[in-house]
Amino acid sequence: MSALQPSPPLQVQPVQWTLLLPKPRLDAARSINSKQQHSSRPQPILPPLPFLAALKMTDSYISTGNGDAFTPNGSSRMNGSSPSLPTTSNDAGTAPIIRKKLMGFVGFANLPNQVHRKSVRKGFQFTTMVVGESGLGKSTLINTLFNTTINPPKETLPPSAERPSTVAIESISADIEENGVRLRLNVVDTPGFGDFVNNDESWRPIVENIESRFDSYLEQESRVNRQKIADNRIHACLYFIQPTGHSLKPIDVECMRQLHTKVNLIPIIAKADTLTDEEVAEFKARILADIAYHNIHIFQAPTYENEDDEAIAEAEEIASKIPFAVVGSDKEVTTPDGRKVRGRAYPWGVVEVDNEDHCDFVKLRQMLVRTYMEELREYTNDVLYENWRTEKLLSMGVIQDSSVFKEINPAIRIQEERIMHEAKLAKMEAEMKMVFQQKVQEKEAKLKQSEEELYARHREMKEALEKQRLDLEDKKRRIENGRPLTPEKISTGRKKGFLRP
Fold this sequence. Notes:
Blueprint: H1 25-37, H2 50-58, E1 62-63, E2 69-70, E3 76-77, H3 97-106, H4 111-122, E4 124-131, H5 138-145, E5 170-178, E6 181-189, H6 204-221, E7 236-241, H7 250-259, E8 265-269, H8 277-293, H9 309-320, E9 324-325, E10 332-334, E11 340-346, E12 349-352, H10 361-371, H11 373-395, H12 410-481, H13 487-499
Parallel strand pairs: 4-6, 4-7, 7-8, 8-9
Antiparallel strand pairs: 1-2, 2-3, 5-6, 10-11, 11-12
Helix pairs in contact: 10-11
């Protein structure tokens, strides 16, 4: 084996800002080809330089399970290193420890774990509403869904008892825990719906209750201190349909039309064990036809771009079961083969609640609890509540400024502000001129009136002086002619003086 020739000293160029940008794939391929051509020469091991991290972090790579990376053209790069820099060979036994530490230090892949820890520590809250006529098994289905007695069965009123005249709203809260995850469950029941002779506007108390919860949340959002915001909005509404086998009744259509813009609507065929499989299929088709005809929006299982085929198939299977034909039972019965199951025993057999061949309860629970509970909460907050909030604020006269979230050229914005300022100044100047002219006119009117009064007084005084002048001239003439000024007055004066004691 020949002696190794000393390698030329490594010269490190100063870092330019352009080096922080990803290099084109052409340079990467040329660099790799040059390495393959000179693979006979040992590559110098670079010392840990600060700018290598910047070069490495900005280049694109595909990470593997052990931290190595591959470029899009298939060439391997250890831990996402730059293609233009020489890398150490695996045969030399020098593992890039510094780069592995850097990959671990970034750690943004740990964000889901952080969110998970925070969510488990904080707990979850979910509010569901059940709407339907009495006797359809609403309370039983809720207890079956969460496998605990949340809503106790109601006592049957005697015939002589007084019935309520309006639909009541009852809310029940329960804290349940499963595998360390706490859930604050709120169940809103609507006893009395559809139980009256006149059911006109029987949905109004339900709609008002949903809107009052939106109002409460909006009021909490508008506070100065928003540290404690209680979310009591309805996240899902289970609408129970009577198993008639025909179609939706007018009260069902109208109630769903009033609710579908304010809550996630999930139609459910109650007591589906009273119908055969063929009747259930036909009944579902009629219900979906009525919903489509009246433009009623019901909650659909969402699908995302990067989901696998299994998740997409699961979502399609759940969507195919809507409306869910369910059977509720919180009691265990024994099957003919000796199994203990939740279900209902009949003379002809046992209906199993958790058997997908018997009812759609499993798919309902899968959509409502196990798979799409967070989607129900997000859709309520991002779509339903936002639409209601927009309509509410617009009705109150609050108008959104169109320039708030718009990218505007600063020069154009300054020019517009200058024009607006000049228009404002021109308006103020016109108003000031108008006020000044009005005051000048009022002053001129007052001065003119004062001038007329002075002229009148001057005329009167002049006439009085002229009269006095004429009297004095007359008296002067009389005195010059030797005639008495007032003989009668003199004689009268003498007579009065003569008689005076």
